[in-house]
Structure formats: structure tokens, C-alpha cells
């Protein structure tokens, strides 16, 4: 559980360092974390409260490695409810669930549940891919495999900060940009009638993602010269996992070291979600 493991005090310390209030309460889903926000309220009576509490849609569920393996490999056909029992929960369709499994690799190296011996011989990559397919494809649920409670605490911290900043970012997006003068933006890209300059616009759009260098943006834009071509490539992928990792192996040349590196799975995932998601509140980058 969230507090039963001897090492779980590490994530509680991270939680205590945040500028927010927290409490441990019974949840509809055991071992889950939810977020609530105080928002201004119009009182119905003169003595009514000026602030009301609203629950955010994000739900982070912690699953023990043993329980995760038993649920995952008991499947004879994809059934999300066997992996993450959400059926019958009021309002579950409006929630955004993510799953965290702490210490899975360590559990597989030192199994204590004998009947799972054959299951534990499956390679970590195969295990992770099967979990991603079942949870993401059938339930739109992200699964995170974390090695330590410290990493779990860091993830909770990042997600909490992202949720807290959401109204502020939403307000900024709704405001006009005061630094944009009438007409062309001084540092923008000029697009001609014949389409010249569109590639540069596309490259700059990619570069607006966090931690994306000009070289990385150029590499992606060269591989897929327009958003429509990238969307077409996503449609041609056979699985959700292939779509999320489509850009990860694109080589990026470094002007400094001269050594090639790759786009990587994290940026590939963020760009994919940005291109296909219809959720305006979706948190793309959990590390900010």
C-alpha cells in the first residue's frame, strides 16, 4: 500500500516538501491518489461559504508488483477490468487514470510468490509492452514502472505541480499576446503563397516543446516535413505502442560532440499525444 512498505516514507517526505495540503483518506480505489482544489464560489445564502472544493480528474493508482503480475497474466483475452477494476465506480468515465508499479524489476529478480515462476521468466520488455497494450489501448490508462519510492514521490510531485499550474496556464492561453504587433511577428517565419516557409514554421512548432533543441526539431521535421504527413504515419502504425514510439529512433546530429543521438521515447510520446489528443487539459510533460 501507500504507507505499508518500509521505504514508502521516502515519497511522503517529497510530498511534505510541496506547498500544498494533503491527507490520507479512504478511496473508491484502494492505494490511489486524487487531487482537490479550492475554487471561488458564489454563496447561495449570505452566510454561505465563499470557497468550494472540486476534485480534479487525475487519479494515480499504486499497484503492488505481485498483484500487477497476477492480474496481467490471468488474462485470456484483453479485459481492462481484470487489470484495473474500475467497473461500477461512479464517475469513472470522466477520470483520467494512470498506474504506478514500484519495484517490479526487483520483485522479478527475487520472487516470493512461487506459483508465478513461469510468469516471471518473461522478459521485462515483453512484460512492459503487454501491460501498455492492455492498459493504454483498451482503457486509455498510462502505466509507469518505477524502481524506487523516491521516484514515485518525484512523479507525484511533478504531477501535483502540473495540476496546480493548470488554471494559470489556461488563463495565459486565453489572453491576447501583448508582444505581438499588428501584422507579422518580428521574429516569425515568412510564408510565401507557394508554401515556402511552411517547413520552418513546422520545425519551430516542434521546438516549442520543452527540452527540444533546434537540431532535434530539424531532425523530426526532416523525417516528417508536415503535420499531415506525421498524422498519416500514425494512422499506418498497427498498435498504440508503435505510435507512441514512432519518433523515438530518429537520429539527431549534434553540432558540439559530432555524435549522433536519438529523439527518445519521452519526446516521441509527448508529440504523439499533442497531435491526436482531444483533451485540452491533458498534461503532456509530467516533469515540469
As residue ranges, the low-confidence spans are 87-91, 113-123, 178-186
Question: Oligomeric status of the shown chains?
Answer: single chain
From the spread of the alpha carbons, the general shape counts as globular
Number of strands: 6
Major pleated sheet: 4 strands, mixed
What radius of gyration results from the CA coordinates?
A: 22 Å
Walk across the major sheet and give the strand order. Answer: 1-2-3-4
The N- and C-terminal alpha carbons lie at a distance of 27 Å
Our count of helices gives 11
Q: Give the SSE order as H and E letters.
A: HEEHHEHHEHHHHHEEH
User: Roughly what fraction of the amino acids lie in strands?
Assistant: 5-15%
Arithmetic mean pLDDT: 76
**Range of helix content:** 40-55%
Structural class: alpha/beta
Describe the structure.
- The chain starts with 8 loop residues before the first helix and ends in a 12-residue tail after the last helix.
- 40% of the residues lie in helices and 14% in strands.
- α1 runs parallel beside α6 and α7 crosses α8.
- With 288 residues, it is of the alpha/beta class.
- A four-stranded mixed β-sheet has the order 1-2-3-4. The chain has a two-stranded antiparallel ribbon with strand order 5-6.
